[in-house]
Write a structure and sequence with these properties.
This protein has 333 residues and is mainly beta. 12% of the residues lie in helices and 48% in strands. It has helices at 2-35, 155-159; strands spanning 37-41, 50-56, 65-71, 75-77, 91-93, 96-100, 103-107, 111-116, 119-125, 127-131, 136-140, 143-149, 165-167, 169-170, 177-185, 191-194, 201-204, 209-220, 227-239, 243-253, 255-256, 276-279, 285-293, 300-306, 314-315, 320-331. A hairpin with an 8-residue loop joins strand 2 and strand 3. The radius of gyration is 25 Å and the shape is globular.
Length: 333
């Protein structure tokens, strides 16, 4: 009996020790994984610094002043004219200055700072801009992006809006995810408002908010000036329903190389689904054509965060996306 009791105690002792060892191993492994991740803030991504532009519209429109917002080192601009971002500022915004047939106006109200705690977040909203004098209505989606609008916007931007944005900024790093805080107000309606024909119309469709990141390896054909790219990394998330409370430290993983065979690949993530322009070495705006997938070193990053995913001048009015604390996540070597 004594030997049997000692045997049972030995077995029990072995089980306890083995359980403790496994728990310690799991804890150490998890801690090691966490320790290998590094989070790096994105320039002006904490949403606490803003450039405020006061645009006075033409007297024919009443001479009212509209306020435009874009991310960047705190500044206030009280003169009309094209905005040129500082070299260290990667951000553009859907709040823009425009001139139609000599009439100065602005698309305002789609992007603005909003108080959050002791700082601010970014509020993106789908709004309709009216220019009664020239009978133009424009559905504007609240959008921030890495790149810059080519101001002043003209009538060409109304028919081919992608031509008015220099998409992407130089970037050669290898993040594994985009991290951010966000919440959203998304209508359940299956009706979208469109102003493609310069008047307000309704069509079928469900409008969602969207966040995506494209990492590209770009090069220019010196003879033609055309810009080509291979897609190196892809992160994409569609927000299809309201999220009333903040989700903090949310990660959108960046998938590297060719993702078309992945079970979570979607058609909207494919090459050239987003028409992009960029300024070439001659100063001309040309289209960026994605010609394949690769694991090259990235040269540029395109980030696009918007309250609508329905395309130019198509959105559900009032849909809103709030974002804050944009960061890159890196895996330490």
């Amino acid at each position: 009996m004594q030997l049997d009791s000692l045997h049972r105690l030995s077995v029990r002792h072995y089980i306890i020790c083995r359980t403790l060892f496994l728990s310690l191993a799991i804890w150490c492994t998890t801690d090691s994984i966490v320790a290998k991740e590094r989070v790096e803030p994105i320039a002006f991504g904490n949403m606490n610094q803003w450039i405020v532009r006061h645009i006075k519209e033409s007297k024919l429109l009443g001479g009212k002043t509209k306020v435009l917002y874009t991310l960047g080192a705190n500044d206030t601009i009280r003169t009309n004219g094209a905005y040129v971002a500082a070299p260290d500022n990667p951000w553009g915004s859907s709040d823009t200055y425009a001139r139609f047939m000599g009439i100065e106006t602005a698309t305002a109200g789609s992007v603005c700072p909003e108080k959050r705690g002791k700082g601010y977040c970014c509020k993106l909203t789908n709004v309709i801009s009216h220019i009664d004098l020239v009978k133009i209505d424009a559905m504007v989606s609240g959008t921030i992006y890495m790149g810059h609008a080519v101001e002043p916007l003209g009538l060409l931007a109304k028919t081919r809006p992608y031509t008015a944005i220099d998409f992407g900024v130089p970037f050669d790093k290898h993040p594994i995810a985009l991290m951010l805080d966000y919440k959203a107000k998304i209508s359940e309606s299956n009706v979208i408002t469109t102003t493609v024909n310069n008047k307000i119309e309704e069509v079928e469709g469900h409008d969602c908010a969207v966040i995506y990141v494209y990492l590209q390896y770009r090069w220019e054909d010196k003879k033609t000036g055309k810009i080509y790219a291979r897609r190196v990394g892809t992160a994409y998330e569609i927000i299809s329903q309201s999220i009333p409370e903040w989700i903090n430290n949310h990660q959108i993983p960046i998938r590297w190389g060719n993702i078309t065979d992945s079970p979570d690949f979607h058609e909207y993530e494919d090459l050239n689904q987003t028409r992009m322009m960029s300024r070439n070495s001659q100063g001309d705006m040309v289209e960026v054509e994605e010609v394949g997938w690769s694991l090259d070193e990235p040269t540029h990053v395109v980030m696009y965060i918007s309250s609508s995913n329905s395309g130019p001048f198509r959105a559900h009015e009032g849909n809103t996306l709030w974002v804050d604390n944009l960061r890159w996540v890196y895996k330490e070597k």
